[in-house]
Amino acid sequence: MTEILGIAFIAIGVLFDISGCIGLVRLPDVYNRIQASSKCVAAGTSLIIIGSVILVGTAAAAVKGGICIAFILITSSTAAHALAHAAYRSGLKPWTGTIVDKYQEDTDKEAVS
Description:
single chain; mainly alpha; 4 helices; elongated
């Protein structure tokens, strides 16, 4: 039973990773691509690690897997934020179909104040 559960987690994680790769190719601008890749890869890699921990089934693997998942979740979101912020500050405009630009709204409010 644990083998089936572990393989299921790994398979779902791989599907998340594949969707992130497809997002890199299909989405229109850098901001959408950053979002797709960071969220899908973080979730996909975490699920793969959980599946691996279930398959190994030891306490040491669980601790190491938990540490790896925490590291991935923290660094993935931080890196995505830093990349998006740097892209915006360097003048890279969002896709023309973007409906809301909160960063621009905040910048305009600060300029008025």
